[in-house]
């Protein structure tokens, strides 16, 4: 378990940095995974650059484990990839297989013992496991494992998965994984290295993305295809929901496990999380976001002077909105690129204007104008209100807010750190009430149908939309009606991140 002692371990500066950053980041993707099997390449460096490309998926810790056929070496730490790995560190990680991980945790769980990959020594050898997602039955599984004598070194569900695999006693890692997944529920994209194998798996619902590629006589797997572009790898295809990929000296083998009638890919990968240059399940993310903006303009015709994106995630939708509406696009909201997670917390007087440290409108462009601000989502509404207030002070005549997704009214339990439902403004406010709360002249959301239709390469029934409609594909154990609960109620004994 963790608590006050763990928080103090990392000091006041880290906590203050998180508090400041939370002013601007209501959504947090939990992590990104990367794996490579390439006997003729420097796999540690390839993984380093792969994780660099996935840095947007996790900025609190990172790790790389390398297998050379006999043993597994690992290095991980707190911070960004570039801060953790240097030339000497990478030189010391020599082998033919590597798995890497970047992590974004909740406050209080940001500690070195929770950094991944998880390295396990067990009766069949060694295993390094990296996981993106969240199990919904971690408490139950962990309790049962501890009652059976298991000892845990971390508070993350990834170690529970590793323990389940190790305790099966199966000779082959893929056989142990097939047995372990019979007991786990929730979202997981996994990459696992043994001394001589690379194994990857996407959960049967396909919540989190995972793709397969080829590079210079080897294979790579990654949360997003943008990592392949960085290392010069070729995208082969997506790992299918429920599919286990095994790569060793004999080549690549695919094992398909049972799956539900249709997948439940997290739609927010397209709305916000994934990099625009990634392709997920055949759909380019940038094109999907631009299409969402065009649909938003079609659903809500407007009479305004300027379309202004909220950087950076609102830019593609604003571009599509501008193209469809014929209203000029203006980059009139400037983002300070040098505000990071360790930003020193301002004094109270400055905290009240903290958003101005990171975002600032250009008065000369907006004064006297009717502006349409375009963002990907509204979660708590606090940041949106501050942005609207800034444009009022900059002299905008009217400030309208356009959102390229539906109202977020329900928490996520499958690997995304959202607020408790009581903190989600759409859970207790109508659109009109939310508009008044953020101080805008108008508030306009994209419909669920319009959002899904914009992602035209993925069938409409292949998405998880639980954060919009409260229909959870997998029941949340012990929680009764999950749509009525906050996510903090899943954090009793162990942080399931």
Q: What does this 3D model show about the protein?
A:
With 497 residues, the protein is α+β, with helices and mostly antiparallel strands. The chain folds into two domains: 4-264, Aminohydrolase, N-terminal nucleophile (Ntn) domain (Glutamine Phosphoribosylpyrophosphate, subunit 1, domain 1, 4-Layer Sandwich); 285-461, Rossmann fold (3-Layer(aba) Sandwich), CATH 3.40.50.2020. It contains 19 helices and 23 strands. Strands 3-2-4-1-10-9-11 form a seven-stranded antiparallel β-sheet. It has a six-stranded antiparallel β-sheet with strand order 5-6-7-8-12-13. α6 crosses α7, α7 (157-167) crosses α8 and α11 runs antiparallel to α18. The longest helix is centred in the middle third of the chain and has 15 residues, at 285-299. It is elongated. It starts with a helix and ends in a 28-residue tail after the last helix.
């Amino acid at each position: 378990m963790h608590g006050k002692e763990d928080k103090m371990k990392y000091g006041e500066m880290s906590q203050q940095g998180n508090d400041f950053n939370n002013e601007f980041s209501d959504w947090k993707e939990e992590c990104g995974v990367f794996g490579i099997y390439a006997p003729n390449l420097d796999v540690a460096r390839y993984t380093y650059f792969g994780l660099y490309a996935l840095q947007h998926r996790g900025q609190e810790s990172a790790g790389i484990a390398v297998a050379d056929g006999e043993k597994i070496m690992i290095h991980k730490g707190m911070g960004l990839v570039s801060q953790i790995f240097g030339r000497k560190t990478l030189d010391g990680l020599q082998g033919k297989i590597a798995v890497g991980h970047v992590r974004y945790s909740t406050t209080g769980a940001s500690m070195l013992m929770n950094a991944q990959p998880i390295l396990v020594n067990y009766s069949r050898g060694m295993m390094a496991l990296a996981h993106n997602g969240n199990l919904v039955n971690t408490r139950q599984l962990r309790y049962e494992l501890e009652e059976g004598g298991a000892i845990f070194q971390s508070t993350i569900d990834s170690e529970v998965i590793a323990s389940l695999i190790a305790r099966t006693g199966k000779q082959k890692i893929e056989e142990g994984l097939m047995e372990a997944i019979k007991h786990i529920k929730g979202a997981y994209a996994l990459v696992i290295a043994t001394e001589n194998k690379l194994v990857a798996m996407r959960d049967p619902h396909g919540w989190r993305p995972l793709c397969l590629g080829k590079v210079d006589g080897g294979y790579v797997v990654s949360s997003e295809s943008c990592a392949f572009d960085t290392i010069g790898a070729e995208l082969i295809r997506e790992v299918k929901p429920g599919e286990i990929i095994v790569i060793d000296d004999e080549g690549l083998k695919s094992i398909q496990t049972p799956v539900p009638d249709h997948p439940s890919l997290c739609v927010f990968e397209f709305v916000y999380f994934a990099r625009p240059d990634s392709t997920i399940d055949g759909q380019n993310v940038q094109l999907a976001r631009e299409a969402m903006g065009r649909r938003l303009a079609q659903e809500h015709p407007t009479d305004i002077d300027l379309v202004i994106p909220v950087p950076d995630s609102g830019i593609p939708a604003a571009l599509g909105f501008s193209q469809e509406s014929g209203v000029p696009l203006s980059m009139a909201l400037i983002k300070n690129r040098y505000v990071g997670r360790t930003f020193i917390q301002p004094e109270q007087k400055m905290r009240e204007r903290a958003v101005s440290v990171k975002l600032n409108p250009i008065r000369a462009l907006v004064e006297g104008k009717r502006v349409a601000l375009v963002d990907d989502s509204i979660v708590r509404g606090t940041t949106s209100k501050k942005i609207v207030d800034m444009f009022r002070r900059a002299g905008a005549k009217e400030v309208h807010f356009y959102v390229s997704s539906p109202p977020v009214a329900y928490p996520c339990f499958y690997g995304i750190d959202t607020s408790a439902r009581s903190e989600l403004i759409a859970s207790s406010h109508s659109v009109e009430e939310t508009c008044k709360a953020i101080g805008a002249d108008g508030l306009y959301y994209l419909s669920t149908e319009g959002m899904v239709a914009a992602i035209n390469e993925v069938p409409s029934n292949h998405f998880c939309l639980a954060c919009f409609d409260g229909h959870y594909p997998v029941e949340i154990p012990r929680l009764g009606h999950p749509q009525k609960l906050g996510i903090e109620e899943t954090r009793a004994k162990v942080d399931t991140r």
